[in-house]
Amino acid sequence: MEIRDVVEQIDIVDYISQYLEVERRSENEYVALCPFHDENTPSFTITRSKGLYYCFGCGARGDVADFEVLYNHVSLREAVKRLKAYAGITEGVSLPSTHLAAVQALKKYAPRKEQKNVCEPHKILGENVMEQYEWRPEKFQSWLDEGIPLDQMKRFGYRYDALSNRIVHPIRLPDGRIFSICGRTLDPDFKEKKLRKYTYLVKLGALDTLFGLYENREAILRKKEVILFEGAKSVLKAAGYGFDNCCAVLTSHINPYQTKILLQLGVRIVIAFDEEVDPRQDGEIKKLKRFCRVDWVRNRDNLLGEKMAPVDNGAEVWNELYQRRERLS
Does residue 42 have a pLDDT over 90? Predict the structure, then answer.
């Protein structure tokens, strides 16, 4: 196996999202603030179909292996080792001298920026940080129309930010402490206006938490099962259907920090990611299967539309999908 075989098995957007706050710009293009030079406007572009990134600001470019080398300041050999672990690959990989020389050149001439340790402790915000926002149920109408219960929005701390016209909610560590606030725009024309769909008061960093774990821990332990969605809205919808043992990973994959949290819970895991995501390709899920039971809510009969979450088509469809979940082997 060669390096390119490893690289081709990894979604570059999902991988880089472990380290950067990535925003979708188009069907195939994502942007972020470049980690290799200081900037205030995102110029770091990731093209999913090509598996490449390029920064228009400093010229940094490459594939996922190059990113691992430059971002974490490791050798190519160590980068490949990490990529293999992420993708669940056990086969040996040869390191051709041509690729090694190219990566070393990138590492030598890439712009330098002191990197923060992604595992550094979060700066904790006070519980009263949410008091700056308003409880305005009339502003939640579009969400209520989707089937999200108002009482669940209140339970999870949702509020309205009049200054940015966003629905906001706290992001908590597993012990309940708030370390950031997520805002989701209510402007239907946000793409045309080049507004960010999501904003964060504080960058999420390592994302060593699960949305909903603090609120739903008791039910999760009682039922000995946790249902994992991608987005926070799905957790709220599921609660409206009577499922109070749910969490969200806040992206389309599980990271190593979340794997540790899940193993500590010691319960059955049910993966309920969006329709287009295949959890069998997730390296962390492959690890989880070695230690606990992992089930998959799979859309075998096309009960969901493109890019839908399993809870997006109503309680009846969700219940059918959940009842027909299958074990990942």
Answer: no
Nearest to 125 by CA among 201, 208, 183: 201
Structural domain count, the chain: 3
Residue that has been written with the tokens 């969490």 in this structure: 247
How far apart are alpha carbons 60 and 297 in whole angstroms? Answer: 39
CA dist list (Å): 16 to 101, 250, 313: 23, 14, 30
Please report the pLDDT score of residue 239 as a whole number.
Answer: 97
Q: Where are the alpha helices (DSSP H) in 121-255?
A: 141-145, 150-155, 213-223, 232-240
Range of the domain at 25: 3-109
Torsion of CA 299, 302, 303, 307, to 10 degrees: 70
Residue 124 belongs to some domain of the structure: no
pLDDT tens per residue, range 62-104: 899 989 988 888 888 888 889 988 988 888 877 654 444 445 5
